[in-house]
Write a structure and sequence with these properties.
13 helices, binds zinc ion
Amino acid sequence: MSLDFVIDNAVLPGRAGLWSIGVAAGKVAEIAPEIAGEVPREDAGGCLLSPGLVECHIHLDKAEILGRVTIKEGTLSEAVRETARAKAGFTEEDVYRRASQVVERAVLNGTMAMRTFVEIDPRAGMRSFAALKRVKADYAHLIGIQICAFAQEGLSNEAETEPMLVAALEQGADLVGGCPYTDPDPTGHVSRIFDLAQRFGVDADFHVDFDLRPERADLPEIIRQTERRGYQGRVACGHVTKLAAMPTDAVDAIAARLAAVGVGVITLPATDLFLLGRDSKGLVPRGFAPLMQLRAQGALTAVATNNVLNPFTPYGDANLMRIANLYANVAQLSRDEDLAAAFAMVTSDAARMIGRKAEIAVGTSADLVLLDAASVSDAVRRVVQPLKGWKAGRLSFERPRGRVVG
Ligand SMILES: [Zn+2]
């Protein structure tokens, strides 16, 4: 097969030494210590060539709205309240413009797949959904976007929302998402979301917990229903912060169930650290799910951005390497293998979380990011910048190294 180009002298995740990667027709066609032949070449210079990064949990619809909201408490209830007020004023063009900005920033940070939530309810109407469908189509050559039709503000308390979710699923939403903690009937909420997922044959994604009280958790019900409905490997749970407040043996027992039933857990460290522990007097807890403990039992884990510049997270740059570093720092990771796990949580494991693959292997799509790092652990430790990316073998961005002058 004739190659379109070759990337030489690359470090690959999980392999020792330097490698050449041959790309043909948008796919990885060859991986070898050296690839001979007259073909355009790129010198990786001993840097890390990674699969495209995977943002498995983000809210494009409500990103970049700090100018429209007031943050006085920094609490979850204030964030939900302020965002509900702001989203009633969202127009399709407004959502499209803000979401596009975040997507372009994500692309420049090496992200090539993304699962975004979109709130669908009487306040948002279908406007945000319409906007994100356009964003998904317009950026498809740079990033694969999944749209999760999401009931942020409950179902049983608002009869209009469920038919709107159905309409979104009929009109191309990729999956359905629920938020039992905002519903007066959390167990019924979980059932309704699973019913919708099964009816349309799509995955389910839940926002679980948002407090540090171990009692009355929704996760066991989600695990039970996943098992009963045969939905293994198709359910992701974001936050799950109550795990941070549980004794070690209780977390181990839940982790074993998560692994056996195929339910994944995503920590959103920027949000969890910002919103939780506000009522603590004195020492403020870290308050996010103990992912390394879950992984040790074989559970699937990932970290993600969640929100960008809104009342849930008044920070953000859609930079997954920064989020992996934030997670590693606050989780007190130091060994190379643990930093490598943090890297997997924004690449291969994040991809599995959303039913995709992110790996560099012969026959896979050439979604490649060259990072200015010597290894995956180095990339996380130093929050390195991506230098260049190829989506399906086509150059999708370039960010030349800065240089000191003088
Ligand atoms: Zn979220």
